[in-house]
Amino acid sequence: MERLGVLRPWRHEDTLRRLYVEQGLSTNEIAARNDFDCSATTVRKHLARYGLTDEEPDDVTYGRLDELGETEQVKA
Description:
It contains 3 helices and no strands. The chain is mainly α. The chain has a domain of 53 residues. The longest helix has 10 residues.
C-alpha cells in the first residue's frame, strides 16, 4: 500500500520512537492521532516489533470478547 502512496505511520520505527519514547505518549494517544487511523493494539504490536517495549510481538493480540471477560450471557 505504501508503494501506492498510502501512508501507514504505525509502521515507521522513527515515528513510533519519537512519539512513544521521546514524547511519552501512550499507545492509545498515538492511535488516536488523526494521521494514524489504527487501534492501540496495532501500535503496541509495532512498538514490540521494533523493540521499543518489553513485549514480544507475537504475544500482542487483538483478543476476543470471550477472552476479555465479556462472556456474560443474556438471560431470556
